[in-house]
Write a structure and sequence with these properties.
With about 290 residues, the chain is α/β, with parallel strands linked by helices. The chain is about 50% helix and about 10% strand. It starts with 7 loop residues before the first helix and ends with a helix.
């Protein structure tokens, strides 16, 4: 990817101390770390696996060095399936991570691709939490001159990968995986009924969706980064209940207080706020409470 990350100067200077200071300033007890987006090299499985292992061991050490402050979403080296399976085993059995992290697409392949089925079957067997962060796929880079690709492609690619997981039957087959999608699921809240209508009219698709597309989508979890405004949150809550929403920050790309202050200003009830800020994450990942 040729685009430079927003706030790259701040991101490049990140330290754990910076996160801890920001967390303390904003009343955040525990943050779950993850690698947002990586550059994909399909012909270098060993390099991808080595990068994932280094990142995961660093994150695990961070959680040990700061008890109770950091959980871990382990990076998986897709599109390399064999390496993913080895890293799932190591991270689950040795590092004892809280969940796993994937991105929405790898080059021009989305998560519902049949080639990735063994990875999801193993994650399903382990009843894993899987956090999915968007990227900008090769097919859609620099389509609009002067527009930073993630501005539009992050929400659109999130929508593409959820749709691919849905229509491939992965969501219905892997009922034990608890999926969390960034940024309110991209444009899924607005398009859910359009997608559901298509599925109802297509016999092949509807056969993969017991209970219908909407029922499958309503099982998903979403973080609230970039959707803490009334139009976006209204759309999200029309699809999902507050029990499916999780506080996130995108730090160090964004500041924690941006999400915190905007969320507080939405007029949600005290019980809904408490669920989003804390209770839903602890119910989804009880291991976070055990890290203290």
């Amino acid at each position: 990817m040729s685009a430079t990350a927003v706030n790259f100067d701040i991101v490049a200077k990140w330290t754990p101390a910076m996160s801890l200071e920001s967390m303390d300033r904003n009343g955040v007890a525990t943050a779950v770390t993850s690698v947002s987006t990586v550059i994909i090299k399909p012909d270098e499985p060993a390099a991808a696996h080595s990068l994932a292992r280094d990142c995961n061991e660093f994150a695990a050490r961070l959680s040990i060095d700061h008890p109770g402050r950091f959980g871990v979403f382990a990076l998986l080296p897709l599109p390399h399936v064999k390496e993913c399976l080895r890293e799932i085993e190591y991270c689950a059995d040795v590092l004892k991570v809280d969940g796993f992290k994937l991105q929405t697409s790898y080059k021009d392949t989305w998560l519902g691709d049949p080639a990735f089925a063994p990875v999801f079957d193993e994650l399903n067997r382990r009843k894993a939490v899987v956090f999915v962060h968007p990227g900008a796929p090769d097919c859609c880079m620099n389509m609009l001159p002067g527009i930073h690709p993630p501005l539009l492609e992050y929400p659109f690619d999130t929508t593409r990968t959820i749709t691919s997981l849905l229509f491939s039957g992965t969501l219905s087959r892997c009922q034990n995986i608890r999926f969390i999608f960034s940024h309110g699921g991209g444009t899924i809240p607005m398009l859910a009924h359009r997608i559901g209508t298509l599925a109802q009219k297509n016999r092949e698709l509807s056969a993969r969706l017991p209970g219908g597309a909407i029922a499958q989508l309503q099982k998903l979890f979403f973080d609230v980064v970039m959707v803490t405004n009334k139009p976006a949150m209204s759309a999200l809550l029309a699809l999902a209940t507050a029990s499916k929403l999780l506080f996130g920050s995108d730090t160090p790309y964004l500041r924690i207080e941006e999400t915190a202050s905007e969320l507080a200003g939405l007029g949600l009830g005290a019980d809904e706020l408490l669920a989003i800020e804390c209770q839903n994450a602890l119910a989804l990942m009880p291991s976070l409470a055990r890290r203290t």
